[in-house]
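Notes from the 1:1 (GR / supervisor)

We went over the backlog. Supervisor wanted to see one worked example end to end before approving the batch request, so GR pasted a single chain during the call. The sequence is below; no edits were made to it. Supervisor asked that the structure be written out right there so they could see what the output format looks like.
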Amino acid sequence: MGLSSPDDAAIWRLSDEQAIVVTTDFFTPVVDTPYEYGSIAAANSLSDVYAMGGRPFLALNIAALPDHLPAEISSEILRGGAEKAREAGVVVAGGHTVKDKEPKFGLVVLGFVHPQKIISKSGLKPGDLLVLTKPLGGGVTTTALKQEKVDEVHVAEAIEWMSRLNRDAGQLAVEFDARGGTDITGFGFLGHAAEMAEASGVSLHVEYSKIPLLSGARGYAERGIFPGGAFDNKAFCEAMVTFDEAIDEPAQMLLFDPQTSGGLLFGLKREKLDVFMKRAEELNQPVWVVGEVRTGKGIEVKP
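Structure output shown during the call:
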């Protein structure tokens, strides 16, 4: 897998039993605290390996830092990334830094995956249930933070979710033979769902009432506090989406809201649901069934 598909990472087969997963990601600060920024950036970078059904094992830092940035801030960013990588069982084996006016940080990540257990965006099948593993609303919450209009409780909640690894979510997807999946990041829920629907040649039916949201997200949406990327996402994929008339504009826009280090979205065979929910509880991994895969094209969102 490489440039010919819209998948989250490149995969190179090493043998019949093993393939290597390669990915990279980095971005500017989404929160004000350097340690949490580093931790979120690392979790986000690792996520693409989990989304492909793999397990990361090695990483390299990528950092662009201003000359005037105090050393204690730079070190906290790197410490946040290193400790999140260690939580994932990943070795950070160096990296590279350059000077820049605005901080940027992330990782190059290598992982392993069995060639027969790869999860791709093209693997959804009619009848699959759609499972989401983190709530939406990170984009509006961090935008409210930038605009100094945020409740600190909402910031703490967003940081907790963004810092959470998708390791257990990825393990669940692999254990239950998910073949179609992705992580929800910059294109928002509907942007990434549209990629999967198109790549898989199916339609998606989503129930809005089952979509989990961060506790402050609806309030910020009603005030029109959205990152610019939300409107880009809407323009990109709204032609594929049909909303029920009962779903108002703030709710619609939350489904286009860009996420940082969001959860996984994958297909689950319906007959495995009960055992799947029990296993998710054992792993302390939150999961929400938010819709289903059907024949046809596009995405339909119902109340």
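Supervisor's comment: The domain at 10-117 is CATH 3.30.1330.10 (60s Ribosomal Protein L30; Chain: A;).
Batch request approved.
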